[in-house]
Amino acid sequence: MIQMPITPAARRIRRVALGDFVHRSARKFGERTAVVDGDTRLTYTELDARSSRFAHYLLQTFGSGRQIGMLCMNSADMVVAYNGIHKSGNVWAPVNVRLDAGAIEYILRHAEVSAVVVDAPLYADPALAAMLQGLGVPLIMTMAGGVATAPGATTLAQAEADRSDALPDLDIDDNQPAILMYTSGTTGNPKGVVHSHLSVAAAILGNASGFAYVETDVFSGVLPLFHCAQHALAATAHAVGACIVLARAFVPDEIRALVLRERLTVFTGLPMMYGALLADPQFRCDSLRQCIYAMAPIPKPLIAQIAERMSRNVVLATGQTEIYPATMMFRALEHPELDANYWGTSFIHCETAVMDDEGRLLGPGEVGEIVHRGANVMLGYFKDERATAEAQRFGWHHTGDLGMWGPKGQMLFIDRKKDMIKTGGENVASVKVEAVLLGHPGVAGAAVLGLPHPHWIEAVCAFVVKKPGAEVDEASIVAHCRERLGGFEVPKLVRFVEALPATATGKVQKHLLRQQFAELARQAWGEEVV
C-alpha cells in the first residue's frame, strides 16, 4: 500500500476553497461581467479585488475560523462580502432577513457570531437596530451610500479601503467549515447546518456539469441569496465565469423587463413566479435556454406555457439546506406520462436511495424515506450531536421525505414523513391532493394537512387561495377532487384564505396552519362528516 504524506505545499496546491472560484474566473475572464445589480455592474476583476480586500480586513480584525453573520438582501455588496468571508477562512452565517427581530437574534446568538454584515437600509428598522446593538458585536454596513449607519459601525467601503487586492495566503482545509446556514424552521426553532468548503464545492461542480453551464450564461438572481438554492446557483455561475443579475424583490413587470433587457439564459423561480410572469400574454423570451423551478410542483398546463414562451428546457431541481443543492433533477417534458411530483434522477455528486425504518434499501415501487450520500452532504448540525446522529443513521443522510422509484428510474416524491395524513386506516399524501387542487382553474395556491378528528383520527383539510376574480366555492373544490381522487383522499374541510404562511423561499409553514385552524376543525367536527 502506497504511503504518501501530504506536505504543506501539496495541501496548498490541492486545496478546495470556495473563495478560489471567483479568483480563478477573474484570471480567465477578468473583464466579463460577474454581477449586475441595477445600475451597478462588477467585472470579475472587480469582484475578485473587492472580495480579497474585505477578506484582508476580516483577517486583520477577527482572524480566521470565526462565524460572521449576515443580514442582507440581494446586492453586489452581499456577493462581495460573502466571497470575502470565504477567502478569509471564516464561516459565512447568512440569516433570513424576513424573520422577525426575535427569530434573527436567536439565530445570531446560537451561531456565536463575531460580527454581523448588515444592509444599512435594513438597520433603519428600529426593532432590528435595537437587537443588533444589544448583541454587542461589531457591525459592517453594506449598501450604505447615502444611508445613516449604526454608531461605531464600519461600512464595507471603509473595510475595503487601502487593503491588498491579492488572494489571502492562508491554509484552508477541504473539510473546514465554510457556511453555517439555518433551516427554514417550518416545525420549530431552526437548526444550524454546517457545510464545508468541500461539500459546497461538490455541489457547484456537479451543477456546472449536470446543467451544462458555460461562461456566456446569464443567470437570474430573484430568489434570496441567503438561501442555499440561490447561493448555489450564484456560486456555480461564478465558478464557470457566467453572470448573475440580481433583484431584491419579485415584481412581475420589473422581472419581465429584466429578463428581456439582460437577455437571461437561465431563470430560476418558484411556481407562482412563473404563473405571474406568464399572466402577461405578451411576454415571451427567446434568450432563455433553461427554466428551473423548485419548492413545489408545477401543473402540466403551466409547464406547457413555460415551454412555449420561455424555454423548452424546463427542470425541477431539488435539494435541502443539509444537502447543498442540487441533488436531483426532473425534466418534465421528457416524461409527459409522469405527474408533477416526480423528482427525477440524481446529479453525479449525489447518490440517492429509498430506505425503510430498519435501514434496508428498497426497490422500485416500494415506499420509504429518501436518503442521500455524497460530498455535498453537510458536516452536521451545529451544537446538536443528537440531531446529527439521527440524520446520519445507517451511513446515509436522512431527508425526512417519503418516496419510491418509479418508471425509468425516476424518483416519485410521496410526501414529507411528518405531513403524511393517516385517515380512517388509509395513508394520504398531502402533495397528491395539493397537486389536484392546483389543477383547478380557480386555485392559485393550496396547502393540505391532517387535523385531529374523533372518528377518522385525522381528516384531510385543504386551505385554498383563489385566483383574482375567480368564482369558486367549497362545493366546486370538493367536486373537482372527487373526480380525481379516491374517496378517502377528498378533503373533508375546505377553507379559503388570503395567503398561505410561507418562508422566504415559498415553503408553506404548515405548522402555523395547524395552530391557526385547530379550533376551527374541532368546531366543524360537531357537524356530520361524510
From TrEMBL:
Domain of life (superkingdom): Bacteria
All copies of domain AMP-dependent synthetase/ligase, residue ranges: 23-382
Record-linked InterPro entries: AMP-bd_C, AMP-bd_C_sf, AMP-binding_CS, AMP-dep_synth/lig_dom, ANL_N_sf, ATP-dep_AMP-bd_enzyme
Gene3D superfamilies tied to this protein: 3.30.300.30, N-terminal domain of ligase-like
One Pfam family per UniProt: AMP-binding_C
Residue span(s) of domain AMP-binding enzyme C-terminal: 432-507
Alphabetically ordered keywords of this record: Ligase
SUPFAM superfamilies assigned to the protein according to its UniProt record, in alphabetical order: Acetyl-CoA synthetase-like
GO molecular function: acid-thiol ligase activity
Protein family membership: Belongs to the ATP-dependent AMP-binding enzyme family.
PANTHER family: LONG-CHAIN-FATTY-ACID--COA LIGASE, NONRIBOSOMAL PEPTIDE SYNTHASE PES1 (EUROFUNG)-RELATED
UniProt name for this protein: Long-chain acyl-CoA synthetase
